[in-house]
Amino acid sequence: MTLNFKILLFALLIIFTGTETEAQNQSFKALANEIQTIQKQLVPDKRTAILEISLKDTTNQVITVIGETNLAEAKSRILQHLSEWKIQFADSIRVLPEASLGDKIWGLATLSVSNMRAKPDDAAELVSQALMGTPMKILDYFEGWYKVQTPENYIGWMGEKELQRITETQLELWKKSNRYFFNRIYGNVFSSPDKKKKVISDLVLGDIFEVETAAKGFLKMRFPDGRSGFVKKRECISWNKWISQKPDINAIVLIANQMTGIPYLWGGASAKSMDCSGLTKIAYFSQGIILSRDASQQARYGEHIEFNNYQNLQPGDLLFFGRNAQRVTHVGIYLGNEEYLNASGFVRINSLDPKDPRYKLTEKKNLVAASRIMNSLNSEGIVLVKDHSWY
Prior knowledge:
4 domains; Histidine-containing Protein, Chain: A; 5-stranded antiparallel sheet; SH3 type barrels; 21% helix; 391 residues; alpha+beta
């Protein structure tokens, strides 16, 4: 579109009469389409950022720009674009976090596994899960639900009973507290450290909590919402020890194997149940590595390996499946000997060898890419917990 043609379109846009002409409709549509194009450029992945802007035509020679975003700089870009073309507009864009949240725009997941949904509704699609102690940004509120963003920037809605809202000052205090990491697949929190103890909660691999004291082989732990209980000390590792250890690919493969048989759940990202990318995410998180949430996102990052020759693959490499490399729909962890672990129905071992009865590749699930994580720590999409500012 040439400069002169754009100017003509926008000139037509602000010439309002009692009845809209076809030319005015076309010019407004052209502008709206251009704003949509800018949005796609600024936020190519709607799972990790919010930028939902649209134009509302009015009859008083003013266009109203409506929508919401959690990226103030993106809003500025769009408004600047309109200003450059002398468009008369009214700004009705909400910038998140929502102002009514006050200073409590941070949160900690309070349950062993807190669910994230696509909409603020218990019946809405499960999009992901957050483990206890996961720090989150709180972006919005609606009738008992909070829109949250996780450390890997994934966005979803969480019920108000599943997180504890805190201020930035409280988050900083939490980061300096005596924290521990739950280092088993499953476990329990008890009411006391003696024989009369009762289970008051479960725990799963990756839960993070504060510890007050140690007694009789137990740690007195505190949930993010203030509840307390006792957990077996041998099942935990101190925060400082956990984040200071060098990530071990063999330990990642070992922990992934320990989850064999766990049922598949779309949106699951915990040892209770998981989807394919939930499995890879949990396994790597056990060694202090934060991966992107979905398989199609994980496929973008890391050291990409030539995968047609299986001799190039190493245990722990991520294998990506789909129709092609641009349409990844599944991920697994390579184990060696042409075997890989993946969540499909349940966590299981499958084979890349067509002669093996565990061979499961189909037209929709061809092997289309492979990546190695350990050579790309603290690169885009692969962040060490110890270096993530939220922790």
